[in-house]
Amino acid sequence: MADEYRFSFGPWNVHEGADPFGPVVRPTIGFGKKLKYYKQLGFDGVQFHDDDAVPDLDEKSDGEMEKTAREVRAMLDGEGLLAEFVAPRLWESPLGVDGGFTSNDPASRKWAVGRLKRTATIANILGAEFIVLWLAREGTYIRESKNALDAHRHLLDAINELLEFDKKMQIAIEPKPNEPMDHAYIPTIGHALALASQTVDPSRVGGLIETAHAILAGLDPSDEMAFALSMGKLWSVHLNDQNGLKFDEDKTFGAANLRGAYNQVRVLELGGYPQSGRFVGLDVKAMRTQPAELATGHLSNSRTIFLKLVEKVRTFPKDVESQCIANRDYEALELAVIEHLLGG
Ligand code: XUL
Ligand code: MN
Fold it and tell me: 6-315: what fold?
């Protein structure tokens, strides 16, 4: 099973532990050292923000950007790692303070589309086949601050511009309903795929579904994944967990809702996800209480829990399942699932 699935995470998943109420609690670990963790923890793929690969991107010329990206590619090759995707990090720049693509300021919109094109160039150098768009500040703090119709049209224009700029690059939209904004545009995979269908090349626009984001939207992550899988549009996942409707927790996969995690694995299995060759991404955060030497356990534990749940899905007695479904005895089916998860 460990051979069938390939796992990835991003350098931001090993972090210093700062939160909105307190400073860092662990020392910064350099990118080169983080790369060493991947194979040790059982991971083969690296997810990037554009400036994870090329720090201070906005201050760099195209030549400098390409040189740095080539150096990062050499580091990946040296470790036997693959770049899964690159995502433009628009939300930290002053130009993206009120969103990039959907900003009211034309200068910000121009900058955002430019960053998107530079992200594609970096992705090509790193060997990543797609860009992820997490639309962090593309939304509103108050509804009256933007014209939402224009905002959606600007988003479509930005995606189209990238698809025209790079005829091979693909885009996976990562929906999230809120945080940092009060309300974000494109809150669910349904919105993402509707937008995709309106682009100049719908075949190159798909989705990445994160467990916590779906829960924050009040939806079942496994159904969100199934919706995308049924259309061949689930291009990556950010598995993690979330304890109800609060801030985006990015807990260890399965740690808050084991049955919910089982059902996510079940739909990935039903959808032939491992055969697609796509990565299982884990967007998980170490608890702030973890000392530095223990601050990668959330990654290896999430992977372990995932693989144990693959085993559970594959060993669930099919005869019991079909009998219960035939009898429409869902109480019996529910007990069988819980007993199976409990190991009894
Ligand atoms: C934000 C989130 C991001 C994206 C990558 O909630 O999930 O980490 O996955 O930018
Ligand atoms: Mn994510």
Answer: TIM Barrel (3.20.20)
